[in-house]
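Notebook entry, structure prediction.
Reason for the run: the old model in the group folder had no record of what sequence produced it. Starting over properly, with the input documented here first.
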Amino acid sequence: MSKAEELEQIAQTIANDNVTPKLRDGATQLVFGVGSPEAELMFIGEAPGAREDEQGEPFVGAAGKFLTEMLGQIGLQRRDVYITNIVKYRPPGNRDPLPEEIEEFVPYLQRQIAVIKPKLVIFLGRHAMNVFLPELKISQAHGHPVRKSGQVYLPLFHPAAALYNPQMRQTLQDDFAKIPKILEKLATEIV
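New structure, fully documented this time:
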C-alpha cells in the first residue's frame, strides 16, 4: 500500500470511528491534510477555519497565503511539504478546540506522522506545539529545534500572528529561514 493510500485510509477511519460527532456535524467536511506523502517537512496547525472548512484544505486563508509565501522564500511549494492540523473538523465560530476534541484526534495525527515519516515536524502556533511539547512556551521555543522520542520538532509562531502584529512577520520569516539549515544538519546524521 502506498503512503497516499495509507493516508486515505486514516481519513476514512476518522469518519468510520465517528470522531468528535458534534464538530463533524457543524463542519462542512473533514480537512485531513494536503501535500506530498513523501515530504521531509510536515506542518501542523491547530484546526481548520472557515475557508479551510469550505475548501477542504488546511491553511488556505490569509495565514495560509503567508505560509505559502514563506515556503517560496526557502525554495519550496505547498506540494513539496505536508500540511495538516491536529483537529480535522472546524470548531464552531473558529473557537479553540476543546482538550477532549484534541485528545480524540491525536492518535490519527500520530498515524499521519508515522506514515509520512517527516525529517522535521513544524508546529504552527503554541496550541499545536503544546500537544506534543506541553512544557515549552512558544515565546522562548520558536525557531529552536527540539528532539523528542526520536522525532525532531520545530515550533514556530502561527502565520496568523503576523497578520495581526507586523513585527511578528520578520520573526516568522527569520525562523522559517532556519528550516533548510536544520534539514541539512538532519541529513548528515547517521540514522
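Summary: The chain has a mean pLDDT of 95.
The old model has been moved to the deprecated folder.
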